[in-house]
């Protein structure tokens, strides 16, 4: 935002310098120069505040889209790092457990060797039987340990495969999101309504449940005087997102063009009830001028505070 504001200040200052350096001719120009010299010129801040919103709105949209893209990339990177760290820790625990089991078996055999030596020194004759018994017990314990750790390693392998699939799905989702954002930027810069519709169709191929793309496609259809198509697209958007104010507003415009004033006014009321921004859009929309004959048209586009002020 700070870079955008500095760019706007430089643009306004260049305009001010160009206006002050333009030559004036005739007696009228001489008198205008005298009046301009007596009045102090407006500051850069005042000139920036007088700028209209469409002059800098695309920069803000582009900045927001880039920030969202960076945030999503950072989030996916954090997920990958967290999964990698968890996997490393689980492998370390498995290695430590296996080392502990190996050391235990080794110490156990040392103990058996020491006991056998003691029995041999004492002179027992059944030392072979004792050795066989100890060997069978040791084999049984080792077998149980091996089975247990095989099961653990199998679970770790399955978990690694599951997390790998999640990472691949997230990477695919990130690629799709980046492509969708690129298509939105191209659509905002495109001047041909037919080309806009092609871009919106590509977005809907990647995101079939994108209600916003359906409503913007309906807007382009209205510009091409395809009213029934626009109404069908808006109904699809409302099926996906019942609280889509943009879809209700486009329906109001479509029915206003078709001459159905009451239906258009009802859809306009629903759009305004979802968001107040459609009041101002309704005042500026040329398609809704035919609704001005309806008695409650102005009450729909006027806020309660404004109505209370006018009545007072």
From TrEMBL:
Transmembrane feature ranges: 107-127
Any coiled-coil regions, as ranges: 139-173
Keywords: Coiled coil, Membrane, Repeat, Signal, TPR repeat, Transmembrane, Transmembrane helix
Region forming the signal peptide: 1-18
InterPro entries in the record: TPR-like_helical_dom_sf, TPR_rpt, Ycf3
NCBIfam families per record: TPR_END_plus
Protein name: TPR repeat-containing protein
């Amino acid at each position: 935002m700070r870079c955008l504001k500095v760019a706007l200040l430089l643009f306004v200052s260049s305009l001010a310098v160009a206006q002050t350096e333009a030559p004036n001719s005739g007696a009228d120009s001489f008198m205008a120069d005298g009046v301009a010299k007596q009045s102090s010129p407006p500051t850069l801040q005042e000139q920036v505040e007088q700028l209209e919103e469409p002059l800098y709105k695309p920069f803000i949209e582009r900045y927001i889209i880039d920030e969202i893209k960076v945030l999503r990339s950072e989030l996916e990177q954090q997920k990958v790092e967290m999964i990698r760290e968890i996997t490393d820790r689980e492998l370390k625990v498995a290695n430590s457990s296996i080392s502990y089991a190996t050391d235990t078996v080794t110490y156990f055999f040392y103990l058996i060797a020491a006991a056998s030596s003691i029995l041999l020194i004492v002179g027992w004759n059944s030392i072979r039987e004792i050795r066989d018994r100890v060997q069978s017990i040791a084999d049984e314990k080792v077998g149980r340990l091996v089975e247990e750790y095989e099961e653990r390693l199998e679970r770790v392998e399955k978990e690694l495969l599951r997390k790998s699939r999640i990472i691949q799905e997230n990477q695919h989702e990130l690629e799709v999101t980046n492509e969708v954002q690129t298509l939105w930027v191209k659509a905002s810069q495109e001047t041909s309504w037919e080309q806009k519709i092609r871009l919106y169709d590509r977005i809907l191929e990647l995101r079939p449940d994108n209600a916003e793309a359906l409503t913007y496609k309906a807007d382009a259809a209205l510009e091409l005087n395809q009213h029934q198509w626009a109404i069908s697209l808006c109904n699809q958007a409302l099926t996906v997102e019942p609280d889509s104010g943009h879809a209700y507003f486009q329906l109001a415009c479509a029915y206003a063009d078709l001459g159905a004033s009451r239906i258009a006014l009802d859809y306009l009321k629903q759009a305004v009830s979802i968001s107040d921004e459609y009041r101002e859009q309704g005042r500026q929309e040329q398609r809704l001028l035919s609704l001005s004959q309806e008695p409650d048209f102005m009450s729909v586009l006027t806020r309660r505070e404004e109505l209370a002020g006018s009545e007072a």
